[in-house]
Amino acid sequence: MSLNEELLDLDSLDTQQLNQLKRKWPKNLAELVSIIDNRLAKEKLDKPLLAEKLITDISIYLGGRDIYLPRGSSLSRFIRNLRIYQAFNGRNADELAKEHGFSRRQIDNIVAQIRQLNRS
Q: Taking the model in full, what pTM does it have?
């Protein structure tokens, strides 16, 4: 176990120490823990301190960096476009356009954009 891992071993903290630590966390960090906790519970993976441990690991890796997280709508659009690309077989653009309420040209553009990303 490295020094960082040893210092950040949340299992070794008692409840009072853990609560003190959480009170010192920035608001956004505490909110991320809550979001992760909720998702883990929905997935029936609610193990004690798992969200905190994940956030601690992410903090070690990304701490101090400015990172961009897309809004939910941007991420949803990208996932939709990825699914369109995966369903595209070269002959079903009209079918995909009808299914998603797009024009044939929009489907062609989506396929071209994802294809370009895959080449990068």
A: 0.61
